[in-house]
Design a protein that fits this description.
Elements (H helix, E strand, L loop, with lengths): L4 H4 L1 H14 L4 E4 L7 E7 L9 E7 L15 E7 L2 H15 L3 H6 L9 E6 L2 E6 L17 H19 L5 H4 L5
Antiparallel strand pairs: 1-2, 2-3, 3-4, 5-6
Length: 182
């Protein structure tokens, strides 16, 4: 019996590779060197087009792929921005947000763990890292005709990046960026 999802379900692995090669052909697949056996995709996107930021992303499969834990955000594929790092991005915007909101509790009440909408933090290696929350568990179900995939998680992350950049540039308001009304 194979331990890793890609060994126990080689057809799912081939489907994942085909989808990523079709929709995001510049991304490459590798295995983490931490002994976990987890696979990840790495590549760059520029969802807002010329003039927008270039994002260097890692899409890391959890060993439970394609299943997500009950109530877990992000699905079974985690999106880790390597450049820009979400912590660095937040450090640049936090002073203006603090001026806008009376205290930090108001920011956390709006779901702004770093001052950015729809992010979560988790231990990754030796560091605490911040990930893009690309999936609400109610939208990603596994079954015969549907499952979480790297391509779908990356599509959601690109949507998040577009909205985040628009929000940072003042092109959309808090109601759209923070409340998830998109």
């Amino acid at each position: 019996m194979a331990y890793y999802w890609y060994q126990s379900d080689p057809q799912l692995y081939q489907t994942e590779v085909a989808a990523m090669k079709h929709f995001f052909p510049t991304f490459t697949i590798n295995q983490l060197q931490d002994g976990s056996g987890r696979l990840y995709w790495r590549g760059k996107v520029q969802p807002t087009g010329k003039g927008g930021m270039v994002w260097d992303l890692m899409l890391i499969y959890k060993n439970s792929h394609p299943h997500a834990e009950e109530g877990e955000y992000g699905g079974s594929v985690q999106i880790l921005p390597l450049q820009p790092r979400l912590k660095d991005l937040a450090d640049n915007i936090m002073p203006s947000l603090l001026a806008q909101y009376k205290n930090m509790d108001n920011l956390y009440a709006k779901g702004l763990q770093l001052g950015l909408p729809h992010v979560y933090h988790q231990k990754f290696g030796r560091n605490e890292e911040y990930f893009i929350c690309s999936a609400d568990p109610k939208y990603f179900k596994t079954g015969q005709n549907q499952s979480t995939s790297a391509a779908s998680a990356l599509s959601w992350a690109c949507k998040w990046i577009i909205l985040c950049e628009m929000w940072l540039n003042g092109e959309i308001g808090d109601d759209v960026a923070l409340e998830g009304n998109y």
